[in-house]
């Protein structure tokens, strides 16, 4: 199946940008822990104080307290998209559907203790969302942005027309979201047989089974 030429990788972020991202992620971890423990009662002041930053610094990074969890939720998503952007080619080329499944499985497989902890915090956030509509809106916004970011990646992988790419991005993104939500609603360990990595393979297969574009190879 024809594919578009590969784009040049973006330049590495500057040291200042990386430090800012690290600070935002640290605040996000703190916010997730507080939301998990106390739900909507958490304040921006508490998040800032517990993170060790001034309140004005907090608001320089985030518009609202719920926005503070975005870096944590988006971090794994970005790793998934980056993984998809460099699929195996040539003799090792795989069907796009399998590339999606493998990348999703890796993204939701905790490689170390911090990754497992991030998944547990995500579970806590999802359980807190029914009582906090603003927090739930952040979750859906992250997935909307994910779907938008997936489109150019899948366009390169499949060479499909824009409407088919849009449908494929929606299916893949929904598979990730549903897998994490289903895991968060239960008691399975992050790395167990009922963990998000195992669930996402099943949801990805179910939601992409009827998309012929996903059967083409990545070469």
Automatic annotation (TrEMBL):
- Residue ranges for the DNA-binding region feature of this UniProt entry: 43-62
- Write out the entry's keywords from A to Z: DNA-binding, Transcription, Transcription regulation
| Molecular function GO terms recorded | DNA-binding transcription factor activity; transcription cis-regulatory region binding
Q: Enumerate the SUPFAM superfamilies for this protein.
A: Homeodomain-like (SSF46689)
Q: Which InterPro entries does the protein's record reference?
A: Homeodomain-like_sf (IPR009057), HTH-type_TetR-like_transc_reg (IPR050109), HTH_TetR (IPR001647)
**Which Gene3D superfamilies does this entry report, sorted A to Z?**
Tetracycline Repressor, domain 2
> Where does the source fall among the domains of life?
Bacteria
User: Where in this chain does the record put each HTH tetR-type domain?
Assistant: 21-80
Tell me which PANTHER family the record gives: HTH-TYPE TRANSCRIPTIONAL REGULATOR RUTR, MYCOFACTOCIN BIOSYNTHESIS TRANSCRIPTIONAL REGULATOR MFTR-RELATED
Q: What is this protein called?
A: TetR family transcriptional regulator
Recorded source organism is: Streptomyces tubercidicus
